[in-house]
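Tokens in:
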């Protein structure tokens, strides 16, 4: 299967490795920076992969069947729509877009073209998360009471200065949209997806050189009667501390932790079907960074979805749900009141100037 990568920045090595591990025919890569492409070509031995600085030219000449989009977030939607128009199946890095309208356009175009569009929420494929999801779908939790997502990470000036788009409303958003959206996706997915109301607070406490928030806190009321709590920040001194997901049900308590919810740290169910210590050992991973090991199985699923003419495990609709929840938190924080879902329209640029008074 002919494969191409658009965007050769910070996350691109995970896509390159996933493409290799799944034996894709890697024909082309594209970036506006020839230096970024050359560095990846040298590091991963991609001398036979053609380099482009114009993705439209790449699509026309190479005709890839599968494309991964790993550019700055604000470019995802436009590139995705062009790829779909060219008949390409897609893996789109998070967030799928920065507005409800753009997410809807991607979903609609993908369905009309009959191509597979996957939102790259790779943590759903963590061994720990798959084990928890299996328990949830088996009804082992009983009635779900509430869940919490905590993302306590560090991002310093060097990180933000490494790419001018980071922390901007037009091309990125803040900590919730960039660093925290994976765990936000997991919380919404595990708690039943359908949300009634969101109450959010955001602030920029420690990064005066960015436009968006470095702290976000939210309360969520799900339509099934359960609740959610989100705490996400890039303010932790002086390195990443943890990413955790707690789920509390009538008959079960679970905590996934580690650097990227890759370990099961609490496993307690009334049915006593398995040994908690064995579960913690068997379903724990120790990835080298916060990106984890999920890209390779996500790619495998997408390849199978294309061959089997089915939806991927993580759909474009899933990507929109994660985006919608972050935007709802932003909207609630900006307006100082609860926000009902679904959101009819919202874009990160709606919040431009939100923290200007703090300068």
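Residues out:
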């Amino acid at each position: 299967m002919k494969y191409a990568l658009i965007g050769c920045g910070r996350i691109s090595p995970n896509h390159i490795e996933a493409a290799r591990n799944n034996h894709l025919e890697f024909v082309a890569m594209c970036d506006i920076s020839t230096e970024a492409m050359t560095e990846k070509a040298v590091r991963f031995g991609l001398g036979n992969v053609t380099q482009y600085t114009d993705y439209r030219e790449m699509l026309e000449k190479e005709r890839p069947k599968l494309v991964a989009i790993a550019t700055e977030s604000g470019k995802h939607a436009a590139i995705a729509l062009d790829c779909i128009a060219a008949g390409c199946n897609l893996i789109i890095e998070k967030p799928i877009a920065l507005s409800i309208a753009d997410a809807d356009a991607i979903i609609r175009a993908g369905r009309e073209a009959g191509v597979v569009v996957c939102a790259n929420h790779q943590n759903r494929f963590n061994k720990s998360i798959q084990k928890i999801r299996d328990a949830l779908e088996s009804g082992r939790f009983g009635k779900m009471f509430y869940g919490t997502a905590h993302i306590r990470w560090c991002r310093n000036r060097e990180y933000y200065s490494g790419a001018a788009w980071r922390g901007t409303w037009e091309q990125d958003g803040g900590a919730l949209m960039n660093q925290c959206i994976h765990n936000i996706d997991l919380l919404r997915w595990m708690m039943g997806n359908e949300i009634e109301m969101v109450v959010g607070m955001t602030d920029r406490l420690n990064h005066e050189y960015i436009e968006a928030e470095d702290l976000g806190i939210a309360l969520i009321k799900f339509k099934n009667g359960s609740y959610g709590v989100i705490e996400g920040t890039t303010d932790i001194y002086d390195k990443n501390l943890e990413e955790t997901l707690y789920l509390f049900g009538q008959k079960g308590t679970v905590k996934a932790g580690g650097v990227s919810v890759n370990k099961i740290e609490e496993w307690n169910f009334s049915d006593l079907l398995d040994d908690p210590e064995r579960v913690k050992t068997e379903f724990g991973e120790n990835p080298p960074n916060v990106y984890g090991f999920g890209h390779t199985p996500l790619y495998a699923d997408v390849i199978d979805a294309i061959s089997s003419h089915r939806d991927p495990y993580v759909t474009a609709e899933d990507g929109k749900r994660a985006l919608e929840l972050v935007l709802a938190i932003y909207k609630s924080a900006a307006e100082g009141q609860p926000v009902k879902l679904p959101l009819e329209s919202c874009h990160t640029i709606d919040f431009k100037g939100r923290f200007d008074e703090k300068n």
